[in-house]
Write the structure tokens for this entry.
Amino acid sequence: MKRATLVLGLLAGSSWAQQPQTVVPDKVWPASAERVEYAALQKLPDWRGIWAPIMGDKAAPKPEIPQLKGKYKAHYDEIQQLIKSGDPEALTRVERRQSACEPPGMPGIMTQPYDLEFLFTPGRVTIIQEAYMQVRRVFTDGRPLPADPDPTYNGASVGHWEGDTLVVTTVGLREGGTMGRWGITYSDKVRLTERIHLDAKNKDVLVVENSFEDPNALVAPWHSVARFRRQRGLDQIEFVCAQNDRNPLGADGKPEFRDAQK
Amino acid sequence: MRHKAASAALVAGMAVLAGPASAHHSFSMFDMNKTVAVTGTVTEFRWTNPHAWLHLDVPGAGGATDAWAVEMTSPNNLVKTGWRRSSLKLGDKVKVNLHPLVNGKKGGSLANVTLANGQTLENK
């Protein structure tokens, strides 16, 4: 839609000033600028390699208790009760999804039990998650956040560098998405700020500090931290979830184990 | 490493599941606190995403044969702990430790498998 508006305007020979401001101005959009500055990338920190989430990370802070409200608190309380029951049947209702192959969306894309890779290009940081080969695009070209984005799994992200820390703001996430495990969900008004940097004491550890603000779901901001260990000798491997999914969701919403005989 | 159980410690005020983080589906269908050993013959080994799968024929009661289905993590993870797509072949005799299905059917999540040559491969 936006691109069509731009193209039609150019074809008609209309002056740019007369067109509705439906696209980001050229000067902050490397894809449409006449030239880009690759030399600036040399100043960015070294995030080469792929980054594996640190499981059972003793150095990470304990999960913060979320201060939720409304239906988000009710959902959290329900899930917490299911977990506390310890009943195996109840536990099967804790982590529900629309499809077993459905990606988690933000921030879950960052913390799946697979690797992340960061690519720096002018005006943009691209994050590739090995699981399901998911991609996040963080625009660092100075564009504003969209005013009324369609909600998506990973939202709309813009970022900037504060020294060697990439600060990313994300909006446009889907109502009911997962902010944290064990029942912590957000509304489509959530705003997430990530501060991503290397550990000052270990350059092979990457730290992602999340701060969530949500006028509908949260009484106060909720914070979480994820840490990753660098792996220099590995590349990501193809991952197609539809290749052999033997765990489709049944009519009751629970994942099946299709091959069990009896 | 990727299937290592998350901290089982309960954080004050928040109940958390003691189980591996999963990309694909919840592990609540398995009893992760229980490990069952079965010995049998490989009838199928599928080196696929989102999970690799091992199928076994296991001698059952009264001379019957039980078919077991055992789910693993993905090839993406398994290659990092020494697995290859050729690690298991049809007809191989193997000993499997698995976390069984909660519903009692003959399936589970692999803990590890010991090959006829004595090598043990972990599911992580």
About this structure: Confidence is low (pLDDT under 50) at residues 1-11 of chain B. DSSP finds one helix and six strands in chain B. The radius of gyration of chain B is 15 Å. Strands of chain B lie at 36-46, 53-59, 65-71, 93-100, 107-114, 120-122.
